[in-house]
Amino acid sequence: MNKNNLLRKEVEKYIKFPLYLVILLITMNIVVYGLDRTCGIVVTVFIVVFLVLEANSYFYKKKNIRSDLAAFSFSHSSIQNELIKDLSIPYTLVDVNGRILWSNKAFYDAIKSDKQHMRKHIQHIFTDITLELFAMEPEDEDRRVVNIFQSDRNYRAEIKRMDVKFVLSGEMEGVVSENDVLFAIYLYDETELVKALEEKEKTKLVVGQVYIDNYEEAMDSTEEVRRALLVALIERKITKYMQNVDAVIKKLEKDKYFFVCQKQRLEQLQQDKFSLLDEVRSINIGNDTPVTLSIAVGEDPDNDSYLTAYEYSHMAMDLALGRGGDQTVIKKGDQIIYYGGKTQSAEKNTRVKARVKAHALKEMLITKDRVLIMGHKKPDIDCLGAALGIYRLATLLDKKANIVINEVTGSIRPAMNNFIGNSVYPQDMFLNSEKALEAVDPNTVVVVVDVNRPSRTECPELLTRTKNIVVIDHHRQGGETIENTTLSYIEPYASSACEMIAEILQYSVDKPKLRPAEADAMYAGILVDTDNFVAKTGVRTFEAASFLRKSGADMIRVRKAYRVDMDEYKQLSEGVARAEIYLDNFAISDVPSEGVDNPIVVAAKVANDLLDVENVRASFVLSMVDNVVYISARSLDDVNVQVIMEHFGGGGHGTVAGAQLENITVEEAKQQIRDLLDTMRRDGEF
Prior knowledge:
By secondary structure, this protein is of the alpha/beta class. It contains 21 helices and 23 strands. The model is unreliable at 166-178 (pLDDT under 50).
């Protein structure tokens, strides 16, 4: 029942009410007759006169009253209609198909048109207002909001569902029926508000830090009389670069700077790709060691908190240093952006950090009852060798230790055969994830080796069962890191995890004693990760190998243990033969997974062999295992494959890196590599 019917019935009741009073008067007249006949006759006369007047009012003036009410209603509706027409907020009515039925003047002004759009569809004017927005049921929320852009103006459009059973005005007559559903659309002009918010966003301050990565090394490689000049040149380039973007920069220490700038200026630096890194690296006044910088920027996109932005800058700096320096890391909440990082990490001759970390690790192991050691999934020999080194350290400190391994791959089976079934070692030396979770308790320390991403560890859940976590790795850090670590020792300059563990052993205990099988495994780990001491090899690498040789490692025994069989050798040859040279400098190939115990290891060996081909600067070899495409990337010193693999969610070193791609074929993965190489060459990143 609509409002008109209700009003008509109420008026009808009001007009008939005096007639209902006649019943009361007649009753009263009967009572009066009983008391006095003369008085009853007088009352009867008055009642008859009242009935005549009331009947005349009801039957003859009823039409006039209704006409007056209709005139008032029409006048009131016309006033409302005129008010809506002159409303400053653009307003229109559309049907369920989006056809415009009626609009006020402000609406036509907003779309810069006259009434020629009448009966046209709203989608032809505002493409952001789709028919899906009209799919509102009566029991659902009857209001939708959408932001649209039209004629250089920003509007917030509110769409309200209306059940119409009457005609608003004469203009709508014949356009809608009583059972139609209409939608009222209000347009609120928020152009100035949007501009103000954009300006506020642009002028928001971000916090940054600049560290000189190798200050001491650069000074030591420069003549004493030129050191002051070198410092002045570095400071001048940093200060001038920041002043060009109106940044406030302050020198905190001899090798540390702090700066603040507007967000729009940060975007300018991003477009410039932080050329300050290249400018400082190009300084050469006789210094044998190029100077490199690490730049970290923090921004809080959610709460605009400068304290949070400052904390983010510290996290970004830790990430930049953990990745080897010579790069910029921007942290915007959970988003992390990298720039630079093209050069290889320079080996640090000082062992101060290694000694400090070794002492801290020893103190932690002493205070705990049990040690669980784990590496990455599908462990290689470097991962196993590093785990064995920590195992030996724990046993030298009289601690119960176990190594977590779920799958014995072909790359570690020769080493594992020396421990499984050996009476010298306990039967529970190696545990799977299930048994490791049963063994862990609050007084257990978990040592993670050769990996720093929780999702890549053998048992990620193990990291949530204890607060005592140690990470020892030589891979560059990425956006995913193991949180709440008690001790973290990540050095991208190191050739392998076994090299790092070998140094820790020498500083942790006096005259550490390794068993020959353990020394062989650690030596093999260094050998594989350096491609027979060719790639990423430094002075400390040979010193670690020397320590292992003194501990009983035998080169001939290692070489015999890790020789390949004829089938695998054929697969290696086939992988090299199937290689294509892309852009004259990049080798791309794949190895079949059928008939190979560990295609990933074969792919890595093929990638190493392809670097011996003339003009090949980097190689990418793919293998398919369990519907996952594994990419093994290798390079010489002028192409950073770690940066390339990060585009696929992987990581590693500048010369040795990898990635995993799911739900994709090998050929599709190859094409993605080609597309990325095209983009990077076009952008001048090679």
